Queue: 2 jobs
Job 1
Amino acid sequence: MKKIQSTCNICSIGCNLDFYVEDNKITKVSPTKNYPVNKGLACIKGLNLDKEQIKGEVTKKPLLRDESGNRNEIEWDEAFELFAKKMSDIQSKYGTESVAFISTGQITTEEIALLGHVARNFMKIPGDGNTRQCMATSVVAHKQSFGFDAPPYTLKDAELSDTIIFIGSNPAIAHPVFWARVRKNKDAKIIVIDPRKSETAKYADEWIDIKPKGDLTLLYTLANVLIENNWIDKEYIKQYSEGFEEFKNHVSKFTPENSFEKIGISKERILNLAKTIHDGKRVSFWWTMGVNQSYEGVRTAQAIINLAVMTGNIGRPGTGANSLTGQSNAMGSRAFSNTTGLFGGGDFDDILRRKAVSKALEVNESLLATKATIPYNVIVEKAIAGEIKGLWVIGTNPRHSWTNNSEFKKAAENLEFLVVQDIYADTHTSKLSYLFLPSVPIIKKEGTLINLERRVSKVNPVIPKEEDELTDYEIIFNIGKALGMGKLLDNWKTPKDTFELLKKCSKGMPCDITGITYELLEGEDRTGSGGIQWPFRESEALEEDERRLYENGEYYTPSKKVKFLFGDISKNPVAQYDEFPYILNSGRGSVGQWHTSIRTREIPDKLKTWPEKAYVYMNPKLASKLKINENENVIIESINNSRAKFDVKINDMVKEDQLYAPIHYIETNSLTPSVYDPFSKEPSFKTVAIKILKK
Ligand SMILES: Nc1nc2c(c(=O)[nH]1)N[C@H]1C(S)=C(S)[C@@H](COP(=O)(O)OP(=O)(O)OC[C@H]3O[C@@H](n4cnc5c(=O)[nH]c(N)nc54)[C@H](O)[C@@H]3O)O[C@H]1N2
Ligand SMILES: Nc1nc2c(c(=O)[nH]1)N[C@H]1C(S)=C(S)[C@@H](COP(=O)(O)OP(=O)(O)OC[C@H]3O[C@@H](n4cnc5c(=O)[nH]c(N)nc54)[C@H](O)[C@@H]3O)O[C@H]1N2
Ligand code: SF4
Ligand SMILES: [Mo]
């Protein structure tokens, strides 16, 4: 029996798992004991990675739709030729940018980068990722405030904090292994800011039951109270930040008294919370989708950064303004996808970076993409308008997960050529495809993933591929060949080749990985096989398993100072009013459920604890007012004018005027709006006005 260590590619924690293999079959999966991230822990999803693909439609050869609408297997070579011909024909007929892709944070960094090379450099097409629905807000907030998309923390900071504040974050469900580490820190005070009494809020010392989207007002009010009481770190502000005076002036109008209506938190509780932050010696702030998925997400994330900076809670053990990522490789896609920045970071019009990247890739500068992509929402809008005619979807299921999801259906139906590349042929999106390209799952792949604390870790093939099976890497490579890339693929033959190219691209950047090699990551010694956080430069020695950024107070802005950024409070474009009197909130349902429920199928039935059908949580008082019984099926209509049916689960985790719908059912996103943050273009999924109709 062989033991092979590899990285879980489901959530952003990036646990390592030991796979025991006999006769090319996985006999057992257990969490790697000495891996610094999970230290012998794992969740139900990772532990069932061996059950991949038991349920659901799987093919080894591509599927092509015929005139009567049936899908038939074709040979791989035929599929690559067809892809190249169709996409090139569309581009010559309607223009280069009439073709686009939508990718994912759930494949390896090498695959993401090769896609960036083939599609963005060579095809010159726009392409975005599902990370737009998720991390775009943090990315923009980091870039503007810190000067680079570089989250400050290492996971150990949660163990070292004396005060831990979660804002719009439910790690008990969404980041279970991290949550287990948080809970080990018995001395810390845990505060949860969430309109809903989430599983995390239930456990916390204090639940700040804020009104939905009251966060920006609350954070500005807290900043004002801290300033007025002189509970700030003047020395840190002076030495390491800029824009504080303007910020101070801006927040001076946010008093506990006049904020009450917007946030529903009393003056006493606000003062208490400010005092708790002041009293804490090591305060860490952690935010996730309750912040990012908002029409004012970027400014809210920056308000969290401002609080950490002004109280000196950044760059020290146990502190930080820390954005938790969701998918296994969102961080890889952020640094190396060639969609919103060059490989390794830097704007497309940055002359020096263009030179460095073209040199690293050994290509002419004119090959590099010349501008950032149009965002996801614009790709969908352009497909609906008929300006985009060809779309390549990889490792994501937008027919289910995109906001106002019938818009994606409209887009798909309007396309001349929809290609879907997934490990399952029967996702809602795969089923819409004209050409379906099957890829193998992570257990048959090689490459790297980057977790939420910037840790690069190795994915190793656990069992071999069978005949006709291809990895995403091989599929994308062969598409490049069929498109006629020729010599432009010479340096990209294997994932390892690509990793070496990315290292060169990252040289001198904040995400420098020049010191990392596959060999080091695979090494038996503790350091390398524990994954390595970026930055890790050539000839650097790895002394610590856990490293945080900004310890010397230097940031990546031109002045090296962190910026105080802020803005006015906006009105929720889809706020509740008489006709739509309730709010629909949405997010994760349970530890075992994953997004669009495709991979949730991999968990054995006996372990499934969640309902089959779409449901909402409703407060007992509202249920009694509307005379709705447990498990009654109701129709919910949203401000979109869309309707969907949900079973009602009566539960006091939600307030009387709010419902909560897990995202794992396609119904939920039929109700969410086409509303976005103005800077990040991330959908404002979480707060939409609805009404409830009894059947
Ligand atoms: N089991 C499981 N784990 C997952 C995932 C999964 O699908 N299943 N998905 C992964 C991914 S990609 C991501 S991005 C993460 C997401 O991780 P989280 O963001 O932690 O999860 P969510 O449930 O989306 O939302 C978190 C909380 O935001 C709250 N919220 C809603 N509106 C507001 C508001 O206006 N203000 C505040 N303060 N809070 C609000 C919700 O009530 C919810 O409790 O999870 C990752 N982990
Ligand atoms: N209302 C509402 N909507 C939301 C959210 C919310 O909080 N509220 N959260 C949003 C967030 S944060 C996210 S990240 C998105 C997630 O939304 P999606 O990305 O659409 O969700 P998944 O179900 O993870 O889809 C991933 C797909 O990739 C496939 N896949 C897995 N491994 C591989 C592989 O190795 N190769 C290939 N080619 N395919 C693979 C899976 O089979 C699956 O079909 O949903 C967003 N939608
Ligand atoms: S916590 Fe995340 S990375 Fe760890 S086993 Fe579960 S899904 Fe995989
Ligand atoms: Mo996400």
Job 2
Amino acid sequence: MMTGSIAERIANIRQQLPPEVRLIAVTKKVPVDAMREAYGAGIRDFGESQVQEAAAKRSLLQDLPDVTWHLIGHLQSNKARKALEEFQWIHSCDNLQLAQRLNRLATELSLKPQVCLQVKMVPDPTKYGWTVPELLTDLPELDQCEALQIQGLMTILPLGLSQQESIEVFERTRALALEIRQQSWSTLQMHQLSMGMSGDYLLAVKAGATMVRLGQIIFGDRIA
Ligand SMILES: *Cc1c(COP(=O)(O)O)cnc(C)c1O
């Protein structure tokens, strides 16, 4: 059961987070009025999973100048240019071809987007993202995407894990970022870990998340 106002929920969540953890309010299917309420409660980071929806909302929220927009959903390559125009952060860069396309377009547009590489720690052919071996193979080419500020990893847990399994997956993600960081890359940065949603963010924070992406726990159930 969801209790309290959006502002109260945000305050409660904030209290449970270390101050350095970035709270991204996931606003897919959330109306702009509720987004304004979240803004009023201090939220400056909005996460959206669709480029079109974000573009429409951005035009309605132009009076909120200091907002950072984060793309967290799968990006089709034909929307890559628009995504770069609408979002400062792309958490869901999930394959090498997309990274290289974003890099080309960012160069063209003179942009330096912040990017996370989406990794699936538990292989699942129906999910987006690099498996660990694929990611390690692609690192040299990712390191050459000089227009991208590749800041770290993003992961989504598979459904149905126990608490212990969830912590283990988050900790393996952190260990992977550390392993990459200890290699000597020229552009790749690996200090950000975008992990943790409404159901698992406290576990993710324990395991070292630097950004959590929270939707339902702030805004209530999404009506599809
Ligand atoms: C929807 C979504 C979230 C937020 O999920 P909640 O369960 O509503 O907190 C976080 N990350 C991604 C990638 C999502 O698609």
